Amino acid sequence: MTDDQPAQIDLPAPPPPSLDHPHTPSIPSPLNPDTSAAKAIRPFKPPPREQREKRDTLKKRESTANGRADTPTMSNKRKAPSAAGRESAPSPMRYAIEPPKLAAYEAPKDTVFMSHEPLPFLTPDGERELRRPVDRAENKRGYRYSHAIADPLFPHKQHYRSTSPSPHAPHLSFEDADKWTHFSSDGLLTTNEKGWRTARANVCVREGTLYYEVRIVRGVPPENSPAASDISGPQPHVRVGW
Question: Average pLDDT of 79-104?
Fold first, then answer.
């Protein structure tokens, strides 16, 4: 070393950054050349969730007649009874109802009708009145009900069987119809005032060749008739089919 040259001092290299440091950046840089520690740290993964128990829909519970209480849940599961412990019956009973009272053994009563207010519905000849059935079982789930009476010969059916009040002949069903539909006493005439309404018959076609006849007693009058000049607004429409 001469006097004209500056002195050189060899300093020890700085120690590398600690790989155990939790805040080691994941992007390399001159000050942090080694990122293996950050790559070795894996992101936190939550534990797997427990699988939820799939519950049956309301429609399926009603079709199986188990009800809401019999639906299996995570906290309440019932074991199915063994085949040896099941009681045999002539036919399955879907619903348990109360025992019939003495009035249930009486003969079926005729349907009660109510006149249209304020003006009654009369046929064009004015001889018959079309009225609406009252005291008819209805709900919002689309169930259709039929008449039933108690019979001691049907213990396996909880002493109930279906029946049919008068008229005892093919006619328009008073139960399987819209609540605003009006009928004659024999069930062969019908009308309404609430737009599109449907009424089915009390009998159905299963096989063979059959036919029926329909006569429209009040519809759209001819253009040149006196009744056509007195009608204003929408005209009635009728749809008939099987």
Answer: 65
